[in-house]
């Protein structure tokens, strides 16, 4: 079944998660976030004023920080949260930051060569605009209206009352107007149908974001490990036999033209080995789910598997086909960071969504008043979260910088990764971010 509303709700750039933030008590939410962290500015050639501006607090609900990553924005499933996100003061703060960045960062416009500073604020604004779009007659949020539409087998079966509604068309048009949205060929086809059926004129073409990071292959085989291909080899078979990523194998070897049938006699440079491999099973899988499952982030999956695009959209590769086997642990082994003087681990938010931060908070806080905390959950906790009905553990962590393995350790009642979905209890509160040393001293 096509399920038309799912074109706008279940085809986001990185998958269709219910936002975690909808399950976090609004009483405990922070106001304000920074576009970048100190760590993200390391090695940057931005001028000092530009760097300072990027680290100033934007006066928005902390959930808006999720919009820094390009992706589809659907209903937040919480009127209170959406109202908090969509405050006029937030829009003013975002627009003011955009204006100041354009002026202050003019002399050093790129974070790194090919990645404009403007991308950070423009992507955030695009996400805010999509989330906060309202119906011009009822004043209701368009995402909630679209979410309530019935499912249909095709666009053609969708009634005019829905297809030609203000919200349906406006949502597609607002996405089309920004090169920083998740608007792609599928959404373009939907907008073309809307324009034709509803007698509307307007552009439907896709816009590419002005990002052109030059990633080059190394001139030498840095692993110093090579492999001579044999009859019957594929990129996946070579990857599995040598504990390497097929995506990185393809990227490092421009003489690999067909990963499904590798000719014998090629001399290939092998990537660094990794301790854990995963074979992507279907086009319905995405990097966020895989990352959470293995206690890491989609951003790290991109880093560890060199043929993956920055948005991780080609995790199930087709053109070009590099195979299905990826590293889900760091190639070459894990690096233990000894820490830097004068820095703190943050509030579990370092590095973006999908478990890419360290998962730790800075200080212990008590549970919310009247909260019933799950049995065995650590009270050395800096932030709690309440489970809602129907929530799944991967979805719970997908928008937070919290590794799955740590989450299960601090909430032992959830059992293993396989048991977590069945053991999580709606209404109970769980620790989201413990403090360092949580398992050594009880408070």
From TrEMBL:
Belongs to the secreted LysM effector family. This is LysM domain-containing protein. Residues 348-358 have a biased composition (Gly residues). Residues 1-23 form the signal peptide. Keywords: Chitin-binding, Signal, Virulence. It comes from Hypocrea atroviridis (strain ATCC 20476 / IMI 206040). It comes from the Eukaryota. Residues 334-369 are annotated as: Disordered. InterPro entries: LysM (IPR018392), LysM1-like (IPR052210), LysM_dom_sf (IPR036779). The keyword Membrane does not apply. One of its GO terms (molecular function) is chitin binding. Residues 225-270, 276-323 form the LysM domain. It holds the Pfam family LysM.
